[in-house]
Amino acid sequence: MRLYSYYRSSASYRVRIGLALKEITYDYFAVNLLRAQQKSGEYMAKNPQGLVPALETDEGVLISQSVAILEWLEEIQPQPPLMPRDPLQRALVRSAVNSIVCDTHPLNNMSITNYLQNPLGASAEEVQAWYEQWIWRGFDGIEKTLEAHAGTCCFGDSPGMADTCLIPQVYNALRFEVSMAAYPKIMAVWDHCNSLHAFQLAHPDAQPDTPPAR
Ligand SMILES: N[C@@H](CCC(=O)N[C@@H](CS)C(=O)NCC(=O)O)C(=O)O
């Protein structure tokens, strides 16, 4: 299969973690967001949503949306599982996932923060305040969830769907210098997950399109 990805895209990072946890090999196809390649005619013909990630199956079918891709991976290759078996636990994991992918990430996506600046005229300080506001609102809830359910990972001691979504969001927060002082549980999960090989393979610093270190 082929993954359309950008090294710093957190939604792509989610899928890379899922693929690495399941040890599924894939071809990496870089889509450079800074050059707006996600809006090119060639890419839009494949993925009319014009976003990364997208996963092309061996049959040539293109799946967009990171969580749809992760759920499909879970269905075609259940081991190791990204979701618990118990229905109530599954609902709790989905709740944490949705908090990140529906309520936090979309508000801080590059196209949103760019729009705040142009045409809306927000200053760099206002954009930073916007960014922090939505990260903190989301992470306040996630921290409480982890207080109740975390082990070394978001839910217990095995990395799963919630970790695939949380770790890229923390990466983004740190990249934009958002204070994480109020979130010791989130940072403990961050530290643990980053010690795992699958998360290291998926990290933005380790992708084929990662620019060489200066
Ligand atoms: N809900 C989508 C979000 C995808 C998304 O927002 N991707 C960003 C990168 S993280 C993107 O392609 N941005 C380019 C743009 O907004 O034009 C998913 O989970 O896959």
Q: Explain this structure to me?
A:
With 214 residues, the protein is α+β, with helices and mostly antiparallel strands. The protein has 2 domains: 2-80, Glutaredoxin, CATH 3.40.30.10; 87-199, Glutathione S-transferase Yfyf (Class Pi), Chain A, domain 2, CATH 1.20.1050. The protein contains 9 helices and 4 strands. The protein has helices at residues 10-21, 41-46, 66-76, 87-104, 110-117, 124-149, 161-175, 184-194, 197-202, and strands at residues 2-5, 27-30, 54-56, 62-64. It has a 4-stranded mixed sheet, with helices on one face. The longest helix has 26 residues, at 124-149. It is globular and about 45 Å long. The chain starts with a strand and ends in a 12-residue tail after the last helix. Bound molecules: glutathione. Glutathione binds at residues 9-11, 33, 38, 51-53, 65-67, 101, 109-111.
Write the layout of secondary structure elements.
Elements: E1 2-5, H1 10-21, E2 27-30, H2 41-46, E3 54-56, E4 62-64, H3 66-76, H4 87-104, H5 110-117, H6 124-149, H7 161-175, H8 184-194, H9 197-202
Parallel strand pairs: 1-2
Antiparallel strand pairs: 1-3, 3-4
The structure holds glutathione (GSH).
Attribute tags:
7% strand; alpha+beta; Glutaredoxin; Glutathione S-transferase Yfyf (Class Pi), Chain A, domain 2; 53% helix; 4-stranded mixed beta sheet; 2 domains; binds glutathione; 9 helices; 214 residues; globular
